[in-house]
Amino acid sequence: MHGLISRYWWVFLVRGLAAIVFGLLAFFQPGITLETLVLFFGAYALVDGIFSIIAAFGGREHTEHWFLLLLEGLLGVAVGIMTWRSPGITTIALLLYIAAWALVTGVLEIVAAVRLRKEIEGEGWMALSGVLSILLGLFLMWAPGAGALGLVWAIGGYAIAFGIALILLGFGVRKSAPVA
């Protein structure tokens, strides 16, 4: 698995940058409508899912744990497509989509970090990204009636923190990669 992750370290970098861009858009455009937020989230989940799938298939011959990344990617693509197909969903439905996605993604990130703790450097960043995802999911389930601005800022803050964690993971994995 270390070979897979070190070869595709840049996938974590791209995922992290996409998350940060999404988060910054949420902070600097707080007046955007909830429908626009839905479309931004759908695009982010879709792109994140596609890159996770690419990394999973790229490493399926090198490790037996590639399916976790594939599962995370398929979930991201599914949530992205569902979000784009029905942008007029209610605030509660949006919160439940995002919360479920964040919870499952968080658990998968933590499972991957635990399995990789002896193989890579920086697995703590992967675990942190999983914890952040779970915290976002729990927050959204706990307070589903929060205002749209609060939702935008909560998701924006999560996306930026998650993106930073993924970027640090990517560079940590790149640094620990065996020299070819």
Based on the model shown, name its key terms:
single chain; 180 residues; mainly alpha; Serine Threonine Protein Phosphatase 5, Tetratricopeptide repeat; 7 helices
What's the helix and strand layout?
Elements: H1 2-7, H2 9-28, H3 34-58, H4 66-85, H5 91-116, H6 123-142, H7 148-176
Helix pairs in contact: 2-3, 2-7, 3-4, 4-5, 5-6, 6-7
Question: What does this molecule look like?
Answer:
This protein is mostly helical and 180 residues long. It has one domain: Serine Threonine Protein Phosphatase 5, Tetratricopeptide repeat. Helices cover 81% and strands 0% of the residues. The chain has 7 helices and no strands. The chain has helices at residues 2-7, 9-28, 34-58, 66-85, 91-116, 123-142, 148-176. Helix 6 (123-142) packs antiparallel against helix 7. The relative contact order is 0.20.
